[in-house]
Amino acid sequence: MTVKLRLSAFGSWGLRRFCGLMVAWFLASAALASPTINSIRLHASPEKTRLVFDVSEPLDHTLFVLENPLRLVIDLPETTLAKTARRQPLGSKDYKGTAVTDIRFSSDKQADLRVVLDLSESVKPRSFLLKPIAQYDDRLVIDLFPAFTDQSIPATEPKIEQPLRDIIVAIDPGHGGDDPGAIGPGNTYEKTVVLAIAKRLADRFNAEPGFKAVLTRGGDYYVAHRARTQLARDNQADVFISIHADAWKTASASGASVFAISQRGATSETARWIAEKENRADLIGGVGSVSLDDKDDVLAG
Prior knowledge:
By secondary structure, the protein is an alpha/beta fold. 29% of the residues lie in helices and 26% in strands. The strands form 3 sheets. Strands 5-1-2-9-8 form a 5-stranded mixed sheet. Strands 3-4-7-6 form a 4-stranded antiparallel sheet, with no helix packed on it. Strands 11-10-12 form a 3-stranded parallel sheet, with helices on both faces.
């Protein structure tokens, strides 16, 4: 009888310990499986401020704006902030030109994360998730557009039409910001090369009487494709020139390729492939990549 009691007591104690270990294991697994913010990036462009969270996996989120003072609150349920992201310095140069003056974080016992952006102006936020591509993992992108009101837009005087006017040339340096375009062997980015070319071309046009050049971007930031063409329309451009630096398999390649718009869309397999590749930049939030491994020599050109 004594032996049976001892075995029964030992079995009950072992069962309780086993259950406790299993509960701890499940809790640890749940914590490890929760989404994590690994890094934070902030970009400024003429049309918006872009905040990018590099995350371990897709996550749920909600946004709302508070006033007096102006703030944007981002709630991320069951999300953790990596130590590297918490220590990531965002100095005054990162906030320059953006609608954000400071970023603060807080979390509760349920492991819900709250991110608060202190704002310098009223904004209209828009958020979306991006899937992994190239050197980027999953991302949560939050765009902050100026919240203009009708009263804030000054009335314009009616323009007097002139019999003659300059020919307006819209010059579009491809890529920019998070979208580097093609990357050369010396780590040269296409976005940097085409911006330098575009600025020199604009100077040449502006030096010619009767011509005026406008750039779709004047710095290292990404502009959506529709925004580029809209900028050309807003400036009543007569010509739209988009500049890109083609990728090739060998360093000895040289020359240029010219594609003109077709009213019926892409008119060749090469043009169709290039159009699809460039249009993907908008779908992935301004992140481009070039791979020639699965293309023949004609398409690679």
